[in-house]
Write a structure and sequence with these properties.
heterodimer, A: alpha/beta, six-stranded mixed β-sheet, 9 helices, B: alpha/beta, six-stranded parallel β-sheet
């Protein structure tokens, strides 16, 4: 009797650990695309994964440095991250899916907002500039996509990293900082919600098109898991739950790379 | 062979010449700045978030050596002596214990403080010290009101109940009311006992109640009373802490601890690179907010907001959260 119970218990634990292992955790970091409250992302994604009948979950990470560490230490095998952060993560993974924005484009733009009477980009020298963080390579990334065209090096400014674009924009509006670097999509949203929040400020600079956040998988992720991820993300636009998840991210669909 | 030897010799001479020129003509290389981050770990988990973001912001630039110290493991006076001896260029003191001790025990090292509820408290000796700059925890009223307008689109009249304890804060808000296009109705009372009557008077000309940090009138009982009265009268209650939002207030705006660390890094650059004196930097108001919304209260009091507002909230309380 004791032997049988022991065998049953062992089998139970093996099956539980097998089920747990079968679940794919998708780590997520992108302040330009996601709602600030991670629970919104968790809810809409789990509704979709449940509907799709797959063992997947989204794990938002709110700190770019923590996210980088998880990927580099091999703890985050599957992830979605802003392209600026992806560039700094090494080469132990591959991009498997690319999202399209609501306008159908696989890229988006960042902009620099200042008070209406601010003269020009060179005047940002020595000044406070607000931005969300794209990880340890934030300054290089912003220089490459945004300030290179204006022959300006953001290292000459003091960058204050904030959690959300709204923080940077409001700080620029009331003069706490000289400029806010935000996504063009978020500016449109804020303008629609409260036009007064953007009154008296102007667009100083617009970036080159920045690739949207890819879905990435570590090189040792199994072929079966890759197929499952590609199918689940590719089908997202075909169900109401999937559409809701896409809307939360500000995307229209995922395309295999 | 001779030709090869002669070419190698002239190449060597060229390298030596370049090295000599570089030594004397090249601009001097700045030595690294030593920064001490002093805090009491595990006092508040937010302190670590602040310290981490301070370090990660500065580490993206060259020339900073940052070391963290824990006042739980080291005596403040001993640490101050060590920092003084070891040519520390700047101290970032997180929390009132670290700030007060470092200000008292160090001589001329610039200090930046943050995460202190009342930095003007005379016991801390921070206010008006020439070697001290900092970041307060008071979110600018303009920022709070702009976020309130995002959630409550047609708001025009906001009521504030206050006492002598919060007069300074309320005067500052009233002086800026035209900037954010909202009419502020204030009512001064003496104690918490008068708050119910004050609310009944104020509700006649106010669409929302804005809570200021005033211990003379707001305690656990009066806060819950105001939350319930506001709900009953379909009035938004704007709090300053997310704990009250969980309890039923409509929204709260408090400082973002994440951004405070990065803001302190910008002040460190002002002092070390731009050579500004700490008293010229002064005390800055915090950049960035922790924006919290109770979606149940939003529905209960019948406010229709643009659904995108929720995507800018740092925390949205829903049915499941509130029942926990």
């Amino acid at each position: 009797m004791i032997k049988k119970s022991f065998i049953a218990l062992v089998l139970f634990f093996i099956s539980v650990s097998w089920i747990a292992a079968a679940e794919i955790t998708i780590f997520f970091y992108n302040p330009d695309a996601a709602p600030t409250d991670p629970s919104i992302l968790i809810k809409t994604s789990s509704d979709y994964f449940k509907k799709a009948g797959v063992q997947m979950k989204i794990q938002p990470v709110i700190d770019a440095d923590v996210f980088s560490k998880l990927v580099k230490e091999g703890k985050a095998k599957v992830f979605i991250a802003s392209s600026g952060l992806v560039k700094s993560l090494g080469d132990g993974f591959k991009e498997i899916m690319i999202p399209n924005g609501e306008d159908g484009s696989p890229t988006y733009k960042k902009i620099v907002m200042t008070k209406a009477d601010f003269k020009g980009v060179p005047d940002l020298k020595g000044q406070n500039v607000g931005s969300t963080s794209l990880g340890p390579e934030s300054l290089n990334f912003l220089n490459e996509y945004l300030f290179k065209s204006a022959s300006y090096d953001l290292n000459n400014s003091k960058v204050i990293y904030v959690k959300k674009d709204l923080d940077a924009l409001l700080a620029a509006k009331i003069g706490q900082i000289k400029a806010a670097i935000i996504s063009e999509k978020n500016l449109s949203k804020i303008e629609k919600i409260n036009p007064a929040a953007v009154a008296g400020i102007k667009k100083l600079l617009t970036s080159e098109p920045i690739p949207e956040s890819p879905l990435c998988a570590a090189n040792d992720v199994s072929a079966g898991d890759l197929d499952s991820l590609i199918k689940t993300f590719g089908d997202m636009e075909n169900s109401p739950e999937g559409k809701e998840f896409l809307k939360t991210l500000g995307y229209s669909k995922w395309v295999a790379k | 062979m001779n030709n090869l030897f002669s070419k190698t010799k002239s190449a060597l001479y060229s390298i030596i010449l370049i090295l000599i020129i570089n030594t004397f003509i090249a601009p001097p290389v700045f030595s690294d700045y030593n920064i001490a981050v002093v805090k009491t770990t595990s006092e508040r988990s937010q302190f670590n978030e602040v310290a981490d973001n301070f370090t990660s912001t500065l580490m993206q630039k060259k020339g900073f050596i940052i070391k963290e110290y824990d006042l739980k493991k080291t005596e403040a006076e001993d640490l101050a002596k060590d920092l003084q001896k070891s040519n520390t260029n700047l101290i970032y003191a997180i929390g009132d214990k670290a700030a007060a001790n470092m200000t008292e025990y160090t001589k001329d090292i610039p200090i930046i403080f943050s995460m202190i509820l009342n930095y003007k408290n005379p016991k801390l000796k921070l206010n008006n010290s020439p070697k001290v700059a900092g970041i307060s925890l008071e979110v600018p009223a303009e920022v709070t009101f702009m976020q309130m307008q995002m959630l409550i689109p047609n708001i025009k009249n906001v009521g504030i109940i206050y006492s002598d304890k919060s007069k300074e804060i309320v005067d500052a808000i009233v002086s800026k009311q035209t900037e954010f296009g909202i009419n502020i109705n204030t009512l001064k009372i003496k104690s918490a006992d008068d708050i119910e009557d004050a609310f009944d008077k104020l509700k006649k000309n106010s669409q929302a109640l804005y809570m200021v940090a005033d211990p003379a009138i707001y305690n656990k009982d009066t806060i819950f009373m105001m939350i319930e009265k506001c709900k009953k009268n379909k009035m938004p209650f704007i709090a300053f802490s997310d704990n009250f939002v969980k309890a039923g207030a409509l929204m709260s705006i408090s400082p973002s601890y994440f951004a405070i660390g990065s803001q302190a890094a910008s002040i460190a650059e002002k002092i070390l690179i731009d050579k500004m004196s700490p008293d010229n930097v002064g005390v800055e108001s915090p950049i960035g907010t922790f924006f919290v919304i109770n979606s149940l209260t939003l529905t209960e009091i019948g406010i229709t907001s643009n659904e995108d507002v929720l995507s800018f909230a740092d925390k949205v309380y829903r049915k499941d959260d509130v029942e926990k």
